[in-house]
């Protein structure tokens, strides 16, 4: 199989990482980019170099396990592979290449029976939690105890709710990004189709401002959303609006992302009553029935699939020409995964329509520039996009002029005293409800002026000094001198402080010293150790531009 240029580059970067870094890398490849083909080809190349090597592909869902096997065999028809997945009634872990379900291999008996692996690939790696008691971490800890495997992750969304990015120096399993491919790049090269959005009817918006969240930093409670989404008039309005904007315009392959099982079945029932060929798929749908429904959708016999958390990952249906989001979500990862379901190319399909009835565009912004930014307690969220009054184009909040027509971003209207008082009372709501979605593209489209997110700098020297913050706290200021800049890049370590700041300093110290040596109790001890050379093995730093500052987020040795 002839790889695309970015796929071969991904393999080259992973090999380079394993040869030069000690941490575990992540490949960030958008939905539809062929990430399974990338790691399948990597495994094939490494196996042919040494047939005694063993490989493990880990995934958390049946669809991903099946997809990994299918893609591996398409790349390498005689691949020596086996599957361990209870959902597929297969339990073989003896082959050189094992494709395993996380939940199946996690059982103590099966895990203890596993022989060591040389390379572990984690599909949809954003599911690896920082908690060491999680199933993924238990599996990986055991396999690292009995062997010395290389470990890599692959994902389209390298972040988790409440955690932010899944790589870095603190509570992260992965060290950094070996290679990243962007959505606009793949659209520009013709490998993905454009995603566009249009305003939906005011009466069809599912307003989540009154819904509770599951826990601090969590997503909305499904039970609260269900009450809002299940209203008959809302469902009727959504169907009427979808027919007007999508179905009547020739878009005959739509996927509806619903809130709950009951919501999916009710939406499906109303669609059928309207004369639409629709089916519902949930986790409760029998495997044989699910397979037939998906086959009928892919062949065009079904016009609408209503699903609940089933088709967000590991499902390919390139003919999808409309994505209907009925679930408001605080999860940027879930939102991006949903949008990605419609971006694969197919026939003469030129774009995919996004109808967002959950106000997620306002909540998260353009999917190629949105960043995970957990809101601190008491801090109010703001819109991540603005809509041009002239052409209704979607623009990123930081854009000063409209990318479509060039009109200036409108200034906020002054508020009367009465309005200010009202806002004080409602400031804890998630998003100011506009009751309409945006019209335009869901992408920033600034390929030539895209802001550099992360860069690597070669370190020439490391120094430290005791510094007092604006709040009067003494901390250790680490200064990385690099060959490319006269000014150093700084990293604060709140050594000796209580709470999260102190824990973060502890984790960063362990990472920067590679978990070796004495750990200081005070800032002055830390300064003395650093200036004595405890950080001298750091060869490079990774810096990320956050706002106007470049912050140190990782180190290479």
Instruction: State the helix count.
Output: 16
Mean pLDDT figure: 83
Structural class by sheet pairing and helices: alpha/beta
- Strand arrangement across the biggest beta sheet: 4-3-5-2-6-7-1-10
State the end-to-end CA separation.
35 Å
Largest sheet: 8 strands, mixed
State the share of residues found in helices, binned by percent: 25-40%
Percentage of residues in DSSP E strands: 15-25%
- Please tell me what the overall shape is: globular
Q: What are the segments in which pLDDT stays under 50 over at least 5 consecutive residues?
A: 374-382, 413-441, 446-452
- How many beta-strand elements? 24
Radius of gyration: 25 Å
Report on the architecture of this protein.
- It is a single chain.
- The chain is built from 16 helices and 24 strands.
- With 557 residues, it is of the alpha/beta class.
- The strands form five sheets. An eight-stranded mixed sheet has the order 4-3-5-2-6-7-1-10.
- A hairpin with a 2-residue loop joins strand 23 (540-546) and strand 24 (549-556).
Question: How would you sum up this structure in a few lines?
Answer:
The protein is α/β, with parallel strands linked by helices and 557 residues long. It is 30% helix and 22% strand. It contains 16 helices and 24 strands.
Protein topology:
Layout lengths: L4 H16 L4 E4 L6 H15 L5 E5 L2 H14 L5 E5 L4 E2 L5 E5 H4 L2 H6 L5 E5 L11 H12 L3 E6 L3 E2 L3 E2 L10 E5 L2 H6 L5 E4 L24 H8 L2 H14 L8 E4 L3 H13 L4 E4 L5 H13 L4 E4 L14 E4 L6 H9 L10 E6 L3 H5 L20 E3 L6 E3 L20 H10 L13 E2 L12 E15 L5 E9 L2 E9 L5 H14 L10 H9 L8 E7 L2 E8 L1
Parallel strand pairs: 1-7, 1-10, 2-5, 2-6, 3-5, 6-7, 11-16, 12-14, 12-15, 13-14, 15-16
Antiparallel strand pairs: 3-4, 8-9, 11-19, 17-18, 20-21, 20-23, 21-22, 23-24
Helix pairs in contact: 1-2, 2-3
């Amino acid at each position: 199989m002839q790889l695309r240029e970015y796929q071969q580059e991904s393999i080259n970067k992973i090999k380079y990482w394993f040869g030069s870094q000690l941490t575990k890398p992540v490949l960030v490849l958008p939905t539809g980019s062929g990430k399974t083909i990338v790691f399948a080809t990597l495994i094939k190349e490494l196996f042919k170099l040494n047939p005694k090597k063993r490989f493990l592909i880990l995934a958390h869902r049946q669809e991903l396990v099946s997809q990994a096997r299918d893609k591996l065999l398409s790349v390498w028809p005689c691949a020596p592979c086996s599957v361990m997945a209870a959902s597929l009634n297969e339990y073989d872990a003896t082959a050189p290449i094992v494709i395993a379900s996380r939940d199946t291999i996690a059982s103590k008996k099966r895990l203890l029976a596993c022989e060591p692996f040389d390379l572990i690939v984690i599909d949809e790696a954003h599911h690896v939690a920082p908690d060491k008691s999680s199933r993924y971490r238990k599996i990986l800890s055991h396999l690292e105890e009995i062997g010395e495997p290389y470990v890599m992750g692959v994902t389209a969304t390298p972040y988790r709710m409440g955690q932010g990015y899944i790589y870095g120096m603190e509570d992260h399993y992965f060290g950094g990004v070996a290679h990243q491919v962007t959505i606009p790049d793949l659209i520009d090269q013709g490998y993905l189709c454009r995603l566009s959005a249009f305003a939906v009817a005011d009466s069809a918006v599912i307003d989540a401002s009154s819904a509770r969240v599951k826990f601090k930093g969590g997503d909305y409670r499904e039970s609260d959303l269900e009450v809002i989404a299940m209203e008959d008039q809302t469902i009727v309005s959504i169907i009427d609006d979808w027919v007007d904007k999508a179905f009547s315009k020739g878009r005959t392959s739509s996927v509806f992302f619903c809130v709950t099982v009951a919501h999916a079945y009710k939406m499906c029932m109303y669609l059928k009553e309207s004369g639409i060929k629709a089916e519902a798929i949930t986790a409760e749908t029998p495997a044989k029935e699910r397979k037939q429904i998906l086959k009928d959708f892919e062949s065009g016999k079904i016009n609408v699939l209503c699903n609940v958390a089933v088709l967000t990952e590991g499902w390919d249906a390139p003919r999808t020409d409309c994505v209907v989001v009925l679930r408001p979500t605080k999860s940027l990862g879930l939102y991006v995964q949903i949008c990605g379901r419609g971006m694969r190319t197919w026939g003469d399909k030129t774009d995919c329509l996004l109808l967002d009835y959950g106000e997620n565009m306002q909540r998260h912004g353009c999917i190629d520039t949105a960043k995970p930014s957990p809101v601190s307690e008491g801090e109010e969220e703001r819109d991540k996009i603005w809509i041009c009054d002239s052409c209704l184009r979607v623009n990123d909040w930081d854009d000063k002029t409209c990318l479509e027509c060039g009109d200036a971003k409108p200034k906020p209207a002054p508020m009367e005293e009465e309005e200010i008082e009202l806002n004080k009372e409602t400031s804890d709501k998630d998003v100011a409800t506009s009751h309409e979605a945006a019209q335009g593209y869901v992408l920033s489209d600034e390929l030539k002026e895209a802001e550099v997110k992360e860069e690597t700098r070669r370190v020439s020297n490391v120094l430290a000094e005791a510094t007092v913050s604006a709040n009067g706290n003494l901390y250790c200021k680490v200064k990385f001198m690099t060959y490319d800049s006269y000014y150093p890049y700084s990293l604060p370590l709140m050594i000796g402080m209580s709470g999260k700041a102190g824990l973060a300093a502890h984790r960063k110290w362990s990472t920067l010293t590679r978990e070796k040596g004495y750990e200081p109790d005070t800032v002055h001890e830390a300064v003395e150790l650093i200036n004595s050379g405890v950080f001298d093995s750091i060869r490079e730093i990774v810096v990320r531009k956050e706002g106007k500052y470049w912050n140190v987020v990782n180190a290479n040795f």
